[in-house]
Amino acid sequence: MFSAIEPAAGNNESKTWSEMCATLVLTEEEEPEHSSKLWGYKMSGKMPINNYFGNFQVTDDALLRLSGTIKFVNLAYTKVGGMAKQMQFESYYMAALKSVDSYEVKDDVLTLRSAEGIVTLVFV
């Protein structure tokens, strides 16, 4: 559940690590009547100020292997304002989620990577 940017030292808007983190919850829901199985998964989380939610696509095979292609879709979030650093973190975080192409779970750590294989987000 950990994804963070380090606050700038001496900045009045600096926040502790826990205030500059985001959580991610992935759940399986009942398969919607008029959509494919890939759309049957929901995701949600909390950023420093706002909550976000959407769906994710992943194959059953990737779920069993704990790695493979994943795509976050239908992303939306609440739009409450906050301090500039918090809002900047949230902007970066949402852009990072949109760029995710693959995932791996190893030793209870979720690593999300972009299409280029660059580590985008890590959750512990």
TrEMBL record:
InterPro entries: DUF306_Meta_HslJ, HslJ-like_sf. It comes from the Bacteria. Residues 42-123 form the DUF306 domain. It holds the Pfam family META. This is META domain-containing protein.
